[in-house]
Amino acid sequence: MSVESPTPYDVSQPTRARYGLGIAALVVGVASLVAALSFVFLPIGLVGSLVAICLGAAALVRGRSGGTANPGQATAGLVCGILGLAVGIIFAVRLGSFVASNTDVFTRFDNCLARASGRSQVADCIAQFARGVR
Which residue from 71, 81, 83 is spatially nearest to 22, judged by alpha carbons? Predict the structure, then answer.
């Protein structure tokens, strides 16, 4: 009489869908697009856009191999990152060209403020600066 051992049951947990990279790409992409549109946070927007592009691309590559279940969010994050990068680069170039074309105006304004001794002279410096900016 032979006794067969019972076949073991597969007790492994079902794999959960992984949404982390896609959600991170979307959040960072939208935040970097908003930051790139602002003047103060422009550098943060540029860096955030690069991060969003990397996260979105990684999520899409992982999704093709069956690792993620949210390609829509990853694509949206990638698109927002690309838009944020484009807007940030355009704003940075425009700001740089504005400053470069008005260097002498900024210098005159600085010298005028250094010589100003009262509010009326400071107001005259501001008016002269406003007339000189192109």
Answer: 71
Residue pLDDT, tens place only, 26-83 = 999 999 999 999 888 999 999 999 999 999 999 998 888 776 668 889 999 999 999 9
Helices (H), ranges, 1-134: 20-37, 42-64, 71-101, 103-115, 119-132
Length of the chain: 134
| Pairwise CA distance, residues 62 & 73, whole Å | 13
Give residue limits of the domains in the chain.
20-101, 102-134
What is the C-alpha separation between 95 and 84, in angstroms, rounded? 16
Structure tokens at 52: 């969003």
Cα–Cα distance, 57 to 47 (Å, whole number)? 16
The pTM (predicted TM-score) of the whole model is: 0.73
Beta bridge partners of 68: 18
Check residue 18 and report its DSSP letter. Answer: B
Rounded Cα gap, residues 34 and 69, in angstroms: 26
Rounded to whole angstroms, the Cα distance separating 57 from 41 reads 24
